[in-house]
Amino acid sequence: MKPVTLFTLLFLFHPALALAKPNIVVILADDMGWGDLESQGATGFSTPQLMRLASEGTRFLSGYVPQAVCTPSRAALLTGCYPMRLGLGQRVLFPYSTHGLNPSEETLAESLSGRGYKTACIGKWHLGHFPEFLPLSQGFDEYFGIPYSNDMDAHYYSHNDFQAPDLPLYRGEEVVERSPDQSLFTRRCTDAAIDFIERHKDERFFVYLAHPMPHRPIHASEPWVGSSELGLYGDVLQELDDSVGRILDALAALGLEEETLVVFTSDNGPWRRESTGGLRGKKNTTWEGGVRVPLIFRLPGRIPAGSECHELMGTIDLLPTIAALTGTPLPAARKIDGLDASALLTGET
After folding, report:
1. Separation of alpha carbons 168 and 73, rounded Å
2. C-alpha angle 21-59-148 in degrees, rounded to nearest 5
3. CA-CA to 258 of 20 to 30 Å: which in 22, 181, 287, 292?
4. For residue 298, which of 64, 73, 54, 79 has the smallest C-alpha distance?
């Protein structure tokens, strides 16, 4: 008989780890503000599926990102490290950028792959567009999406005389389209996420669904165009909300609701000042409006339903928190700046 180790005892009796290895779905909106939820004051459009997610889980009223723009924030989410430590803290990457997230960093996808998870990155990446920086080199088994922001389509950057190519849409490491129809981004990304979940329903999986919307230029598909009182911005938010519902319904249909942690958040504050919920500042500022974001967690039976948490939590905490919930060791060779908030999620403290 094998001896019982301290780790085994902790794994068996620590409530946050008692039911190990849930599936993970992280849904990341692009430039969605703290005030873009009905529960946080939004008007002119409705977000019933996000309300549903919150009613079945815990909504953090003090959710933060470590940087108020895309690239640094996403780097921190996937590594648990401050973006300045990663060399990605100054600004976003552009089509002319030659660097990206260093492959020597251990991403959340790489950590979970080591625990037997199948992993997919769907949507906007924005951590480097050369092969060594793309998702398949950063722990993801599959990738479908765009390598940087949707406004970087055939744009001329006069300050360095650089003509960007037509926006590429990747499947794996192959560019399958140029300048794709952006009105279909939300629908196609959701379809891809559901397809991945269905194909791996009998395995453990991690889906990083990073929607390109509502980053400008904004687009919605039929039948969402004209569906809100607010106009196109409201239409875009309602389609994103519907996407969340489609993911939840797919998990329910497969009997995976109670086995899957669903996280919804945004990469930074909004470009639209009215979307901050009255907070000062917006995207690109370190006022509250730039760094405070929606943050909702659902894991039935483990995360209290219908609760609100006023404690501070950041997206930089996702990696160590998910590591605790899945029994995944933290990267041994890296200093992780994020904190394990699993006990906060499960209501232990």
Report:
1. 22
2. 75
3. 292
4. 54
| 198 backbone dihedrals φ, ψ, rounded to 5° | -65, -40
Q: What pairs with residue 314 in β-bridges? A: 64
Q: Which helix (H) or strand (E) holds 196?
A: helix 185-199
Q: Give me the count of residues in the chain.
A: 349
126-147: b (≥16 Cβ within 10 Å) or e: bbbbeeebbbbbbbbbbbbbbb
From CA 261, how far away is CA 208, in angstroms rounded?
A: 12
The helix/strand/coil state of 42 is: coil
Yes or no: say if 209 and 189 are a contact pair by the CB < 8 Å rule.
yes
Angular region, 277: left φ>0, alpha ψ -120 to 50, beta rest:
left
Percent of the chain with pLDDT over 90: 92
Rounded CA-CA distance 275/288 in Å is 12
Contacts of 25 (CB under 8 A, 6+ apart): 193, 197, 206, 207, 209, 247, 251, 260, 261, 262, 263
Task: Sheet with 307-309: list strands edge to edge.
Answer: 174-178, 168-171, 142-146, 118-124, 205-210, 23-29, 260-266, 295-298, 58-60, 307-309
**Which DSSP helix (H) or strand (E) runs through 250?**
helix 232-253
* pLDDT per position as a tens digit, 49-67: 999 999 999 999 999 999 9
Whole-angstrom distance, CA of residue 302 vs CA of residue 57: 9
- State the Cα–Cα distance between residues 263 and 295, nearest whole angstrom: 7
DSSP at 260: E
Tokens linked to 203: 């395995």
Q: Is 278 helix (H, G, I), strand (E, B) or coil?
A: coil
CB atoms < 10 A from the CB of 248, how many? 19
pTM recorded for the entire structure: 0.94
Return the C-alpha torsion angle 248, 252, 253, 254, nearest 10: 110
Q: Which residues contact 87 (CB under 8 A, 6 or more apart)?
A: 99, 102
- Tell me the β-bridge partners of 307: 58
Is residue 210 within 8 A of residue 238, CB to CB? The reply is: no
- Cis-peptide, bond into residue 214, ω within 30° of zero: yes
Q: State the amino acid at position 5 in one-letter form.
A: T
pLDDT exceeds 70 at position 140: yes
